[in-house]
Design brief:
Structural class: alpha/beta
Mean pLDDT: 97
CATH class of the largest domain: Alpha Beta
Number of domains: 2
Radius of gyration: 17 Å
Distance between the termini: 48 Å
Oligomer: single chain
Number of helices: 8
CATH topology of the largest domain: Rossmann fold
Low-confidence stretches: none
Helix content: 40-55%
Order of helices and strands: EHEHEHEHEHEHHHE
Bound molecules: NADP nicotinamide-adenine-dinucleotide phosphate
Largest sheet: 7 strands, parallel
Number of strands: 7
Strand content: 15-25%
């Protein structure tokens, strides 16, 4: 049974961090949201928060780098919520290391989740977008796309996502589908908390240190990124496509 007549969004990696904030924001904007992550139980707090605020959400499980799981998750979203026409490719992992210590597994895992994952998700969802002649694809890139020590795998994936975004904009524009990338700078999440730990410091100390170099003198919050996604996913953003918008508290590039 179809539950929704609203726009339906799929947000990957939505159990926490930037993905969770984005799912909550798109739901507050009036969309029904598929909260997609590796584990259904971890999605529940986000789904409950959306439902508690009067919105509509569904937990869906998939490893975005697995074709069969992606296709099953997208089909389930369409069956329960309706055809998905907003896709936020946000799921991500880090396997940081200097190049000479980086393993093939470190490389394949990061490229697999960020790039192959975005490819598989987008290929599955574009069918619904082109049928509806309306769609919004938002890929979460990073300032690391411009190069970052210890992140050869991650910077390659995030730069790759930008090329992918521009090509999607060119191919899908005639179907009313836009594709854009958001490039966050330093945002306080579990991902950056783990990075701080790996560097032998705390997230608070790292935040304080990095904030001195950021023009607006603060770290980003997941809601800062969700706000940009909300704009790009909106009805009125149909003439913005193929762009990379950095949300990093200052200019990049
Ligand atoms: P996070 O807190 O680590 O959240 C990432 C989420 O993605 C987690 O719930 C994780 O699930 C999920 N995930 C990982 N692999 C997956 C897979 N194969 N399939 C489905 N879900 C998967 O990270 P975040 O900081 O919010 O980052 C979100 C996105 O923003 C990422 O693409 C990241 O690269 C990008 N970004 C972050 C920053 C930053 O400073 N935080 C800056 C620039 C860009 P598990 O918990 O089960 O692993």
């Amino acid at each position: 049974m179809l539950l929704s007549a609203r726009r339906v969004a799929v947000v990957t990696g939505a159990a926490r961090g930037i993905g969770a904030a984005t799912a909550l924001r798109l739901a507050a904007d009036g969309m029904a949201v598929a909260v997609l992550d590796l584990d259904e139980a971890s999605c529940k707090p986000v789904v409950d928060a959306i439902a508690g605020a009067g919105g509509q959400a569904l937990a869906v499980t998939a490893d975005v780098s697995d074709r069969a799981q992606v296709e099953a998750a997208v089909s389930r979203t369409a069956e329960v919520l309706g055809p998905p026409t907003v896709l936020v490719n946000n799921a991500g992992v880090l396997r940081d290391n200097l190049l000479f210590k980086m393993t093939e597994d470190d490389w394949d895992t990061v490229l697999g989740v960020h790039l192959r994952g975005a490819f598989l998700m987008t290929r599955a969802v574009q069918t619904y977008m082109t049928q509806q002649t309306w769609g919004r694809i938002i890929n979460v890139s990073s300032t690391s796309a411009l190069g970052n020590r210890g992140q050869a795998n991650y910077s390659a994936a995030k730069a790759g996502l930008q090329g992918f975004t521009k090509t999607l904009a060119i191919e899908l524009g005639k179907f009313g589908v836009t594709a854009n990338a958001v490039g966050p700078g330093f945002v306080v999440t579990e991902m950056t908390r783990r990075t701080a730990e790996r560097l032998g410091t705390t997230i608070d100390a790292l935040e304080q240190h990095l904030s001195q170099e950021i023009p607006v003198r603060r770290a980003g919050r997941p809601e800062d990124i969700a706000h940009v996604v909300s704009f790009l996913a909106g009805e009125d953003a149909g003439y913005v496509s193929g762009q990379v918008i950095y949300a990093a508290g200052g200019p990049q590039g």
